[in-house]
Amino acid sequence: MRAVISTDPTPPLTPAVLHILLALAQEERHGYGIMKQVALDSAETVKMGPGTLYGALGRLTKSGLISESESRVDPALDDQRRIYYRITSAGSAVLAAELKRYRNVVSIGRKRQLSALPV
Amino acid sequence: MRYHQWYKALLRLYPKGFRDRFGESMAQTFADLDRERRDAGRSPAAFLAWMFLETLASVALENVAMLNVTVRRLRKAALASGVLLALPLTLTLANPAARLRGGEGGGFDWMPGSFVVMGVMLFAAALGVQIAAERIHGPTARAIAVLGVIAFFALIWVELAVDGISQLALLMASSPSAHLPSSLGLEFA
User: For residue B27, how far is the Cα from the chain centroid?
Assistant: First the structure.
């Protein structure tokens, strides 16, 4: 059987990756700050522990979608230095492509009046 | 608190590269989440169960990912050594006088031991080149490291094939003022 190779340059993102990119879209954040923002953005539906978060941060950094910013102190928490992460231009492009995909899906749903269907 | 130490102990199960990079941040995040839990007046049981299970699952995933990288690296090194060994094997098999073919020797004539030694050397060199290329980021430093691995491989080969390095060292020790090119010419002619 022949393997089907995706030619999509930005395949759909996992919920964790999508929410991390969203959390970093407007400002640099450290790990705990990302977690808090993801919980807020998803109304607590996407819950990430440190394992999931830092595994995803490692993979996103490796693929060039985010990068480490310099360490600095978060006065709201404590005096420990924290590593901040920021989205790269490649990350912003991937996020924009993903949001466009979502908009297309929503648009199809609206056209077919699927919101009127019972859930 | 004692369970903070337990969590730090759990982080030791991650592959070293991951632990060095994220271990401290993870412990810090764990402490932040624990403080948040205490401020909210929640009991530690559910929090700790979630934290430890989630981190344990991530430990397994990262170790599998690390294992996959290692297997891929070993497979590439084995393939490169096999391809490179095909050349001396072809030359040996094409030589009617080769001892491997029951001949009397002479010409291009490698014995099974030579293939094994060269195979091990090529495998180690291919692995070294891959690791250098993956881990060293600057293009100049990477090129120097890769060339260093290749040069080291060549030195060992010269030494094993014709005692080249030992002879050169002996020559230089016995006659420091000896003219190097002519000495080399005599030894390797």
Answer: 30
Quick: pLDDT tens for B93-140. Answer: 888 888 888 888 888 888 888 899 999 999 999 999 998 888 888 889
For the question of an ipTM over 0.90, the answer is no
Domains and CATH numbers, chain A: 15-113 (1.10.10.10)
* Other CB atoms within 10 A of residue B186 CB: 11
pLDDT at B164: 65
Asked if A4 and A56 count as a contact pair (C-beta separation under 8 A), the reply is no
How far is A30 from chain B, CA to nearest CA, in Å?
9
Q: Is A64 on the interface with B (CB under 8 A)?
A: no
Which backbone phi and psi does A70 adopt, to 5 degrees?
Answer: -75, 155
Of A3-12, A21-30, A78-87, B109-118, which one has max mean pLDDT? A21-30
B61 vs A55, A82, A83: nearest CB: A55
A55 neighbourhood in chain B, CB within 8 Å: 58, 61-62
pLDDT single digits (tens) B149-167? 999 999 888 888 877 677 7
Residues of A in contact with B29 (CB under 8 A): 31-32, 35, 50, 53-54
Query: For the range A29-34, what are the long-range contacts, defined as Cβ-Cβ under 8 Å and sequence gap of 24 or more?
Result: A29/A84, A29/A85, A30/A74, A30/A82, A30/A83, A30/A84, A30/A85, A30/B25, A31/A57, A31/A82, A31/A83, A31/A85, A31/B25, A31/B26, A31/B28, A31/B29, A32/A77, A32/A82, A32/B28, A32/B29, A32/B32, A32/B33, A33/A74, A34/A85
Please identify which residue in the block is written with the tokens 């070293």.
Answer: B16
